[in-house]
């Protein structure tokens, strides 16, 4: 693990990171089982691979030039991992799709309040808005999406497959620069709320079909 972290940290101009975090049964848990790196001379590097959970995300502060981070859907995040990303204040693109245990409402709120330059945010399938033990926020995700709605730079947002309610989803009408909103598979949202959302976001493509 130390060698893996050192190799990533050595990429001083790292601006893009795509990574799966967790233990893969067929791989040595201390190694990357697959790595993809593509430096092209302008500080843009892509890496993807399996990293062992061991608080790696909590060491994310040294990625202080990162613009794009994709935690791949096959990752197995631990509780607190997503919240640790709030130190990455330079991000403009973040994908936490299927973050589940590692991405709760509190983490999403912390990210929205800290990583304020986000233009692209994918929080699909994170079970946000669901009642959970230790969740300081009410179920339904109102506080969560109210925080996301403060990200006025957002042009792309994916909230599919969460437990948001009508009241929560309608917080997003404040996103005046949004161009694409994916909001299908929100089983607690009524057709009327979808209609109100679409009417308010005339400047955006609101995708509500599965």
UniProtKB/TrEMBL annotation:
GO terms for cellular component: axoneme. Residues 1-25 form the signal peptide. Keywords: Signal. It is found in: Cytoplasm, Cytoskeleton, Cilium axoneme. This is Distal membrane arm assembly complex 2-like protein. InterPro entries: LRR_dom_sf. Its main location: cytoplasm.
């Amino acid at each position: 693990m130390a060698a893996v972290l050192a190799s990533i940290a050595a990429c001083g101009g790292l601006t893009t990171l795509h990574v799966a975090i967790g233990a893969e049964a067929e791989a040595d848990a201390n190694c990357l089982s697959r790595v993809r790196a593509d430096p092209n001379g302008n500080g843009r590097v892509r890496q993807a691979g399996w990293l062992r959970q061991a608080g790696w995300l909590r060491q994310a502060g040294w990625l202080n030039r990162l613009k794009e981070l994709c935690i791949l859907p096959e990752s197995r995040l631990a509780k607190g991992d997503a919240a640790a990303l709030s130190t990455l204040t330079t991000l403009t693109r973040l994908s936490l799709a299927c973050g589940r245990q590692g991405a709760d409402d509190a983490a999403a709120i912390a990210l929205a309040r800290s990583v304020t330059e986000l233009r692209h945010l994918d929080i699909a399938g994170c079970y946000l808005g669901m009642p959970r033990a230790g969740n300081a926020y009410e179920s339904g995700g109102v506080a969560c999406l109210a925080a996301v709605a403060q990200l006025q730079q957002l042009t792309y947002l994916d909230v599919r497959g969460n437990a948001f309610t009508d009241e929560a989803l309608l917080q997003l009408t404040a996103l005046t620069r949004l161009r694409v909103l994916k909001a299908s598979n929100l089983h607690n949202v009524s057709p009327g709320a979808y209609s109100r959302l679409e009417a308010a976001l005339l400047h955006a493509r609101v995708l509500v079909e599965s």
